[in-house]
């Protein structure tokens, strides 16, 4: 009987106590030794590693990832080396494939599929990358590059034909905003990459990685600058060429360079004709340019190709739920509600984790039916009415359609399953919408000051008291810890009571956001006189976006004529308009 091949897990770590246990748990039954190189942890990382009988080695951090990783490779004693990061998790269902691979693999190394999550608690929305994860421990390979290091042959030019992509998945949490912020990744990475570029300014890989850092910071122009340098120097066979192409195109789109983006897409399609991602971007461009017939045709092409496993897969769902959702949006705008419903429902069937699709589907149904019972019956098939999460989401969707009675029934059912703060908060809001202010206050007061929702709840209580004309102690407002909610409420209070408010000149965007939220509660409650009175708060917030945000509030709540009026006012008074409000003008004036 053939002896089973052996594997060393090689990792570098620093302060990874939040992730390391989960990572090591996911591979403990498929590796024969764990090599952990610690670069200066001050938390419980090393202790966690030792509980797994890992061999832990300490090394001084020199701002060079390749050096640290090569230390880990040098300590490996098994036939194969599995390369992972602490915030990775090996897919349980792919372990047998992995075992078969190490016993029968003929290549020097293998790329696995890395699913990088970008939204907290959402495992259905990820960016796809292929990364070298498994190499033969034959002494020929090492990491090179201070950051975003590559595995290359030590002795000669790397023969990329010796590496193969395998359908084995690694889940990666390092792109989550909370993780990036906690680790100060951008501040750490940018100086290291710039130092590398001093040695070789046109190095395509380092320019690509620097572009990625600026893209993550939202600096699209700087990102595009470095992507262009990388693009002009890259060999198309490089493992990251596909990612560079798609990110460069996305920058052109976001910066409004639609014609350039389309030209680059067509050029890339000559190399990757079956790339669903490229066809999706082409469809998205047509949609942005309001060429809806072309967009529909192109999104359908994405569906025909499907979510294939080509080398050019970067964004998941382009050949399924994303294209169905986009088609639903187009048909909704064109007022073809039946087609919108068909596509939104298909989007849900291929990925039921996108909350927005339920709101859009309900909007389409309300455009066809005036009967709330029919809307509820058509929508309820998509929810598990024994799940608190589903009950809350369904109630919010119906509340958005002003179907408050059934929305409240769902929340009451949720309360029987879970009498939690989040359920009470939504019940209280629903009662305000239906003008049952005293009941709302009684419910909301049950939520303790230790609750995560306390500031929001207190603001809702104060709004309910205002609408009841009950006396309000200013201490109630001042005690709210969230400064932006506090400022918004103080302004609303003074405007409502005196017709005037102190000018709000600091944190204006956040105060405006909170003010719009509170105005929406009053608007949903259909308290017209109170709304018109409190609306004056916007005159005291020093922001040129106040009318645009008001227009969006009207649009969301189906006051479309008022939305158009506010967009026009914004153009006249502030000479300001954004993409969303330009859409409002287009669809309600054309």
TrEMBL record:
TPR repeat placement: 321-354
Membrane-crossing segments per the record: none
Annotated GO MF terms: transferase activity
Glycosyltransferase 2-like domain mapped to chain residues: 8-148
Record bears the keyword Transferase: yes
Domain of life per record: Bacteria
UniProt keyword annotation of Transferase present: yes
CDD domains: Beta4Glucosyltransferase
Record keywords, A-Z: TPR repeat, Transferase
A Pfam family this chain is assigned to: TPR_11
Protein name: Glycosyltransferase involved in cell wall bisynthesis
Species the sequence originates in: Clostridium frigidicarnis
Lineage, top ranks: Bacteria, Bacillati, Bacillota, Clostridia, Eubacteriales
């Amino acid at each position: 009987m053939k002896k089973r091949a052996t594997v060393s897990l090689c990792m570098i770590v620093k302060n990874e106590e939040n992730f390391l246990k989960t990572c090591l748990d996911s591979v403990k039954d498929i590796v024969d030794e764990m090599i952990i190189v610690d670069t200066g942890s001050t938390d419980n990382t090393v202790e966690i590693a030792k509980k797994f009988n890992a061999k832990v080695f300490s090394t001084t951090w020199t701002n060079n990832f390749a050096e640290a990783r090569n230390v880990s490779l040098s300590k490996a004693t098994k036939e194969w080396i599995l390369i992972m990061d602490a915030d990775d998790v090996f897919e349980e269902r792919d372990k047998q494939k992995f075992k078969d691979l190490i016993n029968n693999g003929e290549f020097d190394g293998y790329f696995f599929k890395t699913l990088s999550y970008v939204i907290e608690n959402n495992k259905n929305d990820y960016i796809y990358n292929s990364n070298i994860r498994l190499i033969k421990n034959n002494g020929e390979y090492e990491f090179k590059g201070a950051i975003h290091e590559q595995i290359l042959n030590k002795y000669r030019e790397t023969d990329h034909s010796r590496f193969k992509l395998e359908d084995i998945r690694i889940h990666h949490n390092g792109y989550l905003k909370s993780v990036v912020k906690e680790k100060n990744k951008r501040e750490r990475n940018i100086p290291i990459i710039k130092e590398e570029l001093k040695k070789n300014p046109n190095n395509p890989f380092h320019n690509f990685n620097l572009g990625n850092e600026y893209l993550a910071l939202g600096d699209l122009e700087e990102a595009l600058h470095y992507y262009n340098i990388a693009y002009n120097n890259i060999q198309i066979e490089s493992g990251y060429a596909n990612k560079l192409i798609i990110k460069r195109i996305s920058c052109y789109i976001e910066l409004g360079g639609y014609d350039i983006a389309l030209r680059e897409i067509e050029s890339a399609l000559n190399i990757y004709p079956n790339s669903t991602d490229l066809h999706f971007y082409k469809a998205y461009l047509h949609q942005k340019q309001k060429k809806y017939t072309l967009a529909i045709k192109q999104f359908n092409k994405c569906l025909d190709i499907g979510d294939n496993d080509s080398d050019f897969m970067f964004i998941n769902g382009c050949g399924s739920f994303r294209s169905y959702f986009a088609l639903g949006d187009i048909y909704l705008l064109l007022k073809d509600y039946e087609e919108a419903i068909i596509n939104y429902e298909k989007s849900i069937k291929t990925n039921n984790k996108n909350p927005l699709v339920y709101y859009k589907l309900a909007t389409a149904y309300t455009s066809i039916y005036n009967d709330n019972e029919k809307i509820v019956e058509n929508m309820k098939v998509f929810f598990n009415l024994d799940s608190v999460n589903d009950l809350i989401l369904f109630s919010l969707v119906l509340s958005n359609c002003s179907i408050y009675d059934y929305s409240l029934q769902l929340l009451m059912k949720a309360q029987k399953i879970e009498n939690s703060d989040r359920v009470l908060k939504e019940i209280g809001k629903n009662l305000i919408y239906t003008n049952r202010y005293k009941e709302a206050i009684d419910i909301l007061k049950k939520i303790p000051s230790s609750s995560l929702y306390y500031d929001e709840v207190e603001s809702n209580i104060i709004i309910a008291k205002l609408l009841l004309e009950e006396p309000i102690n200013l201490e109630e407002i001042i005690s709210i810890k969230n400064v932006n909610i506090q400022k918004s409420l103080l302004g609303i209070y003074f405007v409502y009571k005196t017709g005037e408010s102190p000018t709000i000149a600091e944190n204006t965007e956040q105060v405006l956001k909170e003010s719009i939220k509170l105005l929406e509660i009053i608007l949903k409650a259909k308290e017209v006189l109170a709304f018109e009175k409190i609306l004056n708060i916007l005159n005291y917030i020093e922001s040129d976006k106040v009318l645009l945000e008001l227009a969006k509030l009207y649009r969301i709540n189906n006051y479309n004529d008022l939305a158009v009026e506010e967009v026009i006012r914004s153009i006249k008074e502030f000479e300001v308009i954004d993409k969303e409000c330009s859409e409002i003008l287009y669809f309600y004036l054309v």
